[in-house]
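Regression test case RT-17, inverse folding.

Input:
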């Protein structure tokens, strides 16, 4: 993330302190998402034999498709909560042309600012953080319980 920010903003004439703060925020949000995904996929790897297939289906269907639709199902996705944290933490309003501005994140992430300009219908930042941390902890506890109560078969090399 830091290298990407450096590639984008070196020589762009942006305020270095603003870029640094935005980069640190982005890195923290990425780390939170990575922890949540690792816990989730670690658990999926323990409860199914087809981990790769289940993971691809989960990412494509749930995180890719359903998280972008304004339905209640997106409340069960990691990306929804990380997007809300990012939206509430950083500014995504850019000037397009002739003084007109546009909120890139709200449009791309299906946040309806016309009917809910302050996103009051969505969880607050602290709630999003709690959901991600508690879900990660729950997946970790269930995975640890699975490891403690299952017998894993490991193929070892045969001796002559």
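Golden output:
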């Amino acid at each position: 993330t830091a290298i990407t920010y450096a590639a984008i903003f070196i020589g762009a004439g942006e305020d270095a302190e603003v870029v640094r703060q935005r980069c640190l925020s982005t890195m923290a949000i990425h780390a939170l998402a990575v922890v949540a995904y690792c816990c989730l996929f670690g658990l999926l790897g323990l409860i199914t034999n087809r981990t790769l297939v289940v993971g691809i289906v989960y990412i494509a269907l749930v995180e890719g498709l359903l998280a972008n639709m304004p339905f209640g199902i997106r409340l069960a996705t990691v990306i929804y909560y990380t997007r809300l944290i990012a939206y509430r933490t950083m500014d995504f309003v850019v000037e397009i042309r002739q003084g007109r501005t546009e909120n890139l994140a709200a449009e791309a992430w299906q946040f309806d600012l016309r009917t809910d300009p302050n996103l009051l219908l969505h969880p607050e930042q602290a709630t999003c953080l709690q959901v991600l941390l508690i879900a990660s902890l729950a997946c970790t506890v269930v995975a640890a319980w699975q490891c403690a109560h299952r017998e894993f078969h490991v193929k070892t090399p045969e001796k002559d």
